[in-house]
Amino acid sequence: MHDTEPGNDGSQPVAYSYVLAVFATFTYFALVVCAFGFISLLTNTDVVSQPDAGPLVGPAATASAVLTVLLALLQGARGYEASVVRAREALIGDPVRVPLGRAITTGVVAFFAYILIGSFLYGETVGQLFSGLLFAADAILQLYAVAVGLLAVLIYLAFALILAAGGSHPARPLWPWEK
């Protein structure tokens, strides 16, 4: 049983864009973990190069980037839903926009969230603020932080393209007896 919007023909769940945002966030997390594994394997480095960082600095920094992407995607979904309503009221069809600026902004914010949370937690773990600044300087130069930002941009763009391609009525798969 699916709840649908009033006046909808039943083919679209109410929160299609929000569900897509959550799935895109899980995909982002999986891609970040995969990228970290490949970068670590190919460069023979650790994600967090400081041995005294403890076991939670890297995961917490990654979680901050994932949370940043989730919030950006949910905001994008809300904007998309609002533009669909405006387009229906104006009878102009489906709004098709791919916000490149928001995608880049999401990547930059995820990049800095990863670095800032990691450096703050490292500084708290070690007990020295200056050590946190050195951690941030080291993290900016690592491929791990760059991967966090680039993957955030790619996920946001993929999310926007999927919404644009689906229009206001994304097709659901039909069983043979429904055709």
UniProtKB/TrEMBL annotation:
Alphabetized UniProt keyword annotations: Membrane, Transmembrane, Transmembrane helix
Pfam families reported for this sequence: DUF6121
Transmembrane segments: 15-41, 53-74, 103-122, 143-165
Protein name as annotated: Uncharacterized protein
